[in-house]
Write a structure and sequence with these properties.
Layout (H helix, E strand, L loop, with lengths): L1 E7 L6 H10 L10 E7 L2 E12 L2 E9 L6 H17 L2 E7 L3 H9 L3 E7 L5 E7 L7
Length: 139
C-alpha cells in the first residue's frame, strides 16, 4: 500500500533532487516547489508530486512521477492516493500533461479531470491542461 506524505521543500531538500533526477533522467533541477507529496512504499521513497498553491482552493501539480521500477499499476494507485490527500486540503487540482503521454491523459480523464486548455512551451512542446474540482470555466 502506497502512503502519501506532504512535506515542505525545506523538509526534503536533499531527497527531492535525487528523486527528480531518478524519475526524469536529468541532472537539471532548477525549480523549488512550495510543497512535495512524496509516495512511500514499504519505507522506500518511490515518487513525488511537487507544486504550489495556484490560489487558496487550488493546488497546482508542477512535476510528478514514479521511479521506473515502480511504474505500471502502482502509478494509478499512487495517483488515486495523491488526489485523496490533496483533496483533504484543497478543493481543486490542476496540472499539465504533455500531449503525447496518452497513458497519463487516459488516467486523468478516468479520475474525473476535465480538459480546459492547451499550452505550448518555448521548445514547442504541447501540453494539455487538466482540472478537477469546483472551478467552472467558460470558453
Amino acid at each position: 500500500m502506497i502512503e502519501i506524505k506532504k512535506m515542505g521543500i525545506e523538509d526534503i531538500s536533499n531527497l527531492y533532487p535525487v528523486l527528480y533526477k531518478q524519475i526524469f533522467k536529468t541532472e537539471n533541477v532548477w525549480h523549488s516547489p512550495a510543497f512535495v507529496y512524496v509516495g512511500v512504499d514499504n519505507g522506500e521513497y518511490i515518487g513525488f508530486a511537487s507544486g504550489y498553491l495556484h490560489n487558496l482552493n487550488t493546488f497546482y501539480i508542477q512535476y510528478a512521477g514514479i521511479i521506473e521500477e515502480h511504474r505500471g499499476y502502482m502509478v494509478i494507485n499512487a495517483f488515486k492516493e495523491l488526489l485523496k490527500n490533496i483533496n483533504e486540503e484543497y478543493q481543486n487540482v490542476i496540472f499539465l500533461i504533455k500531449n503525447d503521454n496518452i497513458t497519463a491523459i487516459k488516467i486523468a480523464l478516468h479520475e474525473g479531470f476535465k480538459i480546459y486548455g492547451i499550452r505550448q512551451d518555448t521548445e514547442n512542446n504541447l501540453y494539455v491542461e487538466f482540472i478537477r474540482g469546483g472551478l467552472t470555466w467558460k470558453l
